[in-house]
Amino acid sequence: MSANLAPVSSPTEESTMTDGFNLVIDALKLNGIKTIYGLPGIPITDLTRKAQAQGLRVISFRHEQNAGNAAAIAGFMTGQPGVCLTVSAPGFLNGLTALANATTNCFPMILISGSSEREIVDLQQGDYEEMDQVAVARSLCKAAFRVLHAEDIGVGIARAIRSAVSGRPGGVYLDLPAKLFSQAMDAAAGAASLIQVVDPAPRQIPAPDAVKRALDLLKGAKKPLILLGKGAAYARADADIRALVERSGIPYLPMSMAKGLLPDTHELSAAAARSYVLPEADVVLLVGARLNWLLSHGKGKTWGGKDHKAWGGQKFIQIDISPTEMDSNVRIDAPLVGDIGSCVSALLAGIDAKWPKPPAEWLNAVFDRRNKNVAKMAETLAKDPKPMNFHSALNVVRDIVKANPDAMLVNEGANALDFTRSIVDMYKPRKRLDVGTWGVMGIGMGFAVAAAIESGEPVIAIEGDSAFGFSGMEVETICRYNLPVCVVIFNNNGVYRGTDQNLSGGADVAPTVFVKDARYEKMMEAFGGVGVYATTPAELRKGMEEAIRSRRPTLINAIIDETAGTESGRITSLNPAAAAKK
Ligand code: ADP
Ligand code: TPW
């Protein structure tokens, strides 16, 4: 270690001074942060070096958006804010998409960015990478702070942590101008200025009358349904949520990232009867799920309404930590505001052995429908078409995940997303990580890296070929850190599929079409990982089994029928032109 990198955080006889670099690192460590996801450059290169020298793990990416996505999903997985570190203006902007996405998904994350000199930025005198970053970030995150003096670093980091994890979690921006890092101060005073945040995400206990209102409504239901969202997964109230479902005997539906909160094979799962239960249910208990577009805003035909805007007649009970979420789309008859752990345990206290199970008529109708759909799907999965299609490929992934329930599953694409979500069962909480509330492409490799780092488990990333392209360069990162990531690209030669024609008849291919038979597996080989070209389910299975066994970075180029995909996957309702073509 060179002299200028020696830790000076703990005062010794020789060193009674500290500086901004060390105070930032000490403040993060004091608050249990173990990993920084980032990309070095002016003015934070030394911060990354010193952080590594002082025991933080620094995971360096090839693009800040991927580092940001890694930090965001680390926040979801651990409940602690994930930290992303970027350079000024362009690096900051690259990280900002991930910060906004984290906020949209309620993932706790802190984007720390170096920035240029305030005096020059504010007079717009044209500094290196000049930008008023706090002003830009503010509208895209929960909170944005700037620290100008070394003695305020402790407060700045404490505020960032609290803002990220308390209440509804989200993204926080922390601006650290270049000059801050070299500011020296007395080491003892510096240490005293740091704050170890006490109870960063305080429980929020629901009001007893709100609990009673919810229980009364639920008890009177003839066709009750529980809807679990990713907030329920985030809340880590796994045992109580399971008890709520099992003791009440109410069928439940998991949203995408809530899959596995109870095993998808659970007898009360209504996942395979979604289009039946949503319009039929009379009382719906939402647990950490918003009535946003993913749930058709709680109204319209999906919910049995007579047209796309009409209320379907359901009554809603909603558990959420954010009071203003209530009534955001339809009336919430029984709002239950508080943290999910406290709310669910309060409900459980009222659900005793005498609790009336839902009418058998409802349960039979739901499970008949589900069992029929499961049987139909089993038939489709058993087919072995040539070329391989989404179903025959996912039949393999489904088996591999079943055999490796601790593995993390990352998933993005359109068809590659929708089919994986419905075909691949999850068995444990917080194992499925995907495009979330925005349906954003580009989370793949960032999520995969963080999933491996934070869990230590093998990671399977099921990627559309278009989706993969947004973060594909991070296969180098995966190889560099030798992470047990198996990327499976469902390669159908384009966005959604590979068969579109140029309507002008000109020489350019259609906007959705890629190079045919692209050899993505060679990208992994280029950096020392394992590449597999798979045209059959057997080859795919062999490649995946070997990847999980060896824990070596692996990329499987799974060749899928290029006619197999539907435009926009299953959200054609938002793409009227594609819907008309169906
Ligand atoms: P999904 O997309 O799975 O339906 P959403 O992201 O729409 O889920 O909803 C998650 C909800 O969970 C948000 O409204 C958020 O406020 C809420 N939430 C997150 N963590 C908690 C918690 N610990 N307690 C209560 N609500 C929470
Ligand atoms: C940041 C729009 C939604 S899905 C998709 C795009 C480009 C790719 C679908 O093709 P893919 O999957 O991945 O090959 P498949 O299985 O259907 O063939 N930019 C961003 N986010 C989104 N959602 C888009 C564009 C989009």
Descriptors:
single chain; 582 residues; alpha/beta; six-stranded parallel sheet; 23 helices; 16% strand; globular; disordered N terminus; binds adenosine-5'-diphosphate; binds ligand TPW
Explain what the structure shows:
- This protein is an alpha/beta fold and 582 residues long.
- Helices cover 39% and strands 16% of the residues.
- It contains 23 helices and 19 strands.
- The strands form four sheets. It has a six-stranded parallel β-sheet with strand order 3-2-4-5-7-6, sandwiched between helices. Strands 15-14-16-17-19-18 form a six-stranded parallel β-sheet, with helices on both faces.
- The longest helix is centred in the middle third of the chain and has 23 residues, at 360-382.
- It is globular and about 75 Å long.
- Mean pLDDT is 95; it is low at 1-7.
- The structure holds adenosine-5'-diphosphate and ligand TPW.
- Ligand TPW binds at residues 413-416, 439-442, 464-467, 490, 492, 495-496, 565, 569.
What's the structural blueprint in terms of helices and strands?
Layout lengths: L16 E3 H11 L4 E4 L6 H9 L3 E4 L3 H15 L3 E5 L2 H17 L3 E7 L2 H5 L10 H6 L4 E4 L6 H13 L5 E7 H5 L1 E3 H7 L14 H12 L4 E5 L1 H5 L3 H11 L3 E3 L19 H7 L2 E5 L27 E6 L13 E4 L2 H10 L10 H23 L7 H14 L4 E5 L2 H9 L8 E3 L9 H12 L3 E6 H5 L5 H6 L4 E7 L29 H6 L3 E5 L2 H14 L3 E6 L16 H6 L1
Parallel strand pairs: 2-3, 2-4, 4-5, 5-7, 6-7, 9-10, 9-11, 11-12, 12-13, 14-15, 14-16, 16-17, 17-19, 18-19
Antiparallel strand pairs: 1-8
Helix pairs in contact: 1-7, 3-4, 3-18, 12-14, 16-17, 16-22
The structure holds adenosine-5'-diphosphate and ligand TPW.
